[in-house]
Amino acid sequence: QVQLVESGGGLVQPGGSLRLSCAASGSDFSRYTMGWYRQAPGKQQQMVAQITSDRYRIYADSVKGRFTISRDDAKNTLYLQIDSLRLEDTAVYYCTTLSGPFRGAWGRGTQVTVSS
């Protein structure tokens, strides 16, 4: 079983930055494809970014050039650097495992609110 705990969210002004973290318990973290998703109020969940075990990255078009996904396998931690924040980035951000025996595990999320 794997547990995921997100942190790093908060209230920021447009144009600001945040760094989200997702700490994963259990072993074999380095072998999994990991991802960040988000859900804004009244909207469907959206894939934000994914990263494979060999660091191949995929981004949603709406975040390309502003968000950077990374991982530190020694620390079992997934990151999402968010720059140039926009009002429409307001959402709860979740990390998830996208491969391996614990595919589909989700954290509880961290709230990102962009407001002036």
Description:
The protein is mostly beta strands and 116 residues long. It contains no helices and ten strands. It starts with a strand and ends with a strand.
Topology (SSEs and partners):
Layout: E1 4-7, E2 10-12, E3 18-24, E4 34-39, E5 46-51, E6 57-59, E7 67-72, E8 77-82, E9 91-97, E10 110-114
Parallel strand pairs: 2-10
Antiparallel strand pairs: 1-3, 3-8, 4-5, 4-9, 5-6, 7-8, 9-10
Task: Summarize this structure as a short list of keywords or feature phrases.
116 residues, mainly beta, 10 strands, 46% strand
For the record, give the distance between the C-alpha atoms at the N and C termini, rounded to a whole number. 40 Å
Order of helices and strands: EEEEEEEEEE
Task: Give the structural class.
Answer: mainly beta
Strand order of the largest sheet: 2-10-9-4-5-6
Strand content range:
over 45%
Low-confidence stretches: none
Basic shape = globular
Number of strands: 10
Characterize the largest beta sheet: strand count, sense, and whether it forms a barrel. Answer: 6 strands, mixed
Helix content: under 10%
- Rg for CA atoms: 13 Å
Give the mean pLDDT: 96
Give a short summary of the structure.
The protein is 0% helix and 46% strand.
